[in-house]
Amino acid sequence: MPETTSRRGLLFGAAAAVTAGGLLTACTSNEPKGAKPAANDKPADDKPGKHVTIGFAGPQADHGWLNAINDNAKERAKKYSDITLEATEGSNDTAAQIGQVETLINKKVDVLVILPADGKALTQVGLKAMRAGIPVVNLDRIFNTPQAYRCWIGGDNYGMGLSAGNYIGEKLKGKKNARVVELAGLDNLELTKQRSQGFDDALKNYPNIRKVARQAAEFTVESGQQKMSQLLQAQKNFDALWNHDDDQGVGALRAIKQAGRNDFLMVGGAGALSAFQAIEADDSVLKATVLYPPTMAASAIDLARALGQGKGVSGMAEFEIPAHVTLFSAVVDKDNVAQYMPTGFK
Fold first, then answer.
1. What domain count does the chain have?
2. Could you tell me which of 69, 73, 113, 1 has the C-alpha nearest to residue 271?
3. Most buried one in 75, 84, 96, 115, CB count within 10 A?
4. CATH number for the domain harbouring residue 200
């Protein structure tokens, strides 16, 4: 994956080889019995244990998804009486973030959770932590070598495209000569290529569907509106749209409304609250979105706590947590949006 320290380049990371979903139940809330859990809490199946100090080096919160990463990590840590979270200010500057991680190493935290601004550039500091006996949970944007982390957890970009393509395929499988268009993200990012490849591979199972246009945007509301306007002008007739990112989808929906178009269905990506609300209202072309869940940061805290306490993952036979956890790219539509609404990011 091309590495970049830009805000857009930080948005998402590479997928790992092993897929796992719903596994992180070893380190669960120790709230008082009868307390109402948040939507993304796991069932409480353990008690407070050894105290663990977790160092968290996250991104600069200049995008909805990135802000949600930081919020999920901090809110998750608050649910445990046996965790102290040492969180950095957050930075998209590699040198600054390296300095922040080194400070956490010098503080001798028990475990580190790092979403690197640049996976390649921060690999050495990940190695430094591991060699100092501090296990690292590498969140989303992956380091260059597995030696720099004990566990990687992140989303599945290829899976996002695959899920979007299959959803659209099932909706259009009875329509002859169906036409779809794609509003991608930044084309210089490997994640964008992975999402497009997954989408194209899914459509191969539906010979009645043809992708007739693709336009790359920039993960912003402004670019989404501009590029969607261009697609609408160029394509007067199509049946479905796959949009890679819900933030740029806000702009895309503006362009669609301005054009007075409602003759196709739209599938988004990531899991923004605005997308969930539009799906629930069912008053626009947006009918579903495919998750790239920022709740992965909460799960990273769970994994870090398990590492610090020497635990494995409930429901698995192994004594240790997995080396890689790839989150499933679930489709959220009108049928299940109420379940996911509390996890939507702004």
1. 2
2. 69
3. 115
4. 3.40.50.2300
